[in-house]
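Re: weekly structure request thread

Next one in the queue (85 aa):
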Amino acid sequence: MALERGDTVWIPCEVTQRVFPDERNVRIDLPDGHWDGVVDVRQLREEVLDGRTAIRATVVETSTRALKARLPGQTTRRQFIDIPV
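Done, posted below.
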């Protein structure tokens, strides 16, 4: 099944606890660096305090080599990431 614009995907990530119980720090390691952000726990596959899980992302563009996905939450970098297929 090919992914299309608007599809939801789960991106593996590392989370750490924050002061507010409904938020987590999220880090995604990518081939070109990493993405760091703060997300609501409802955007995570499992509501863990610390450790590995996955974050919900929305596909915005696809190609034969990669897909571009929009991430939820707040970040100082970028809301979109490129993921090799």
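The longest strand covers residues 51-62. Residues 12 and 23 are 17 Å apart (CA to CA).
Next request, please.
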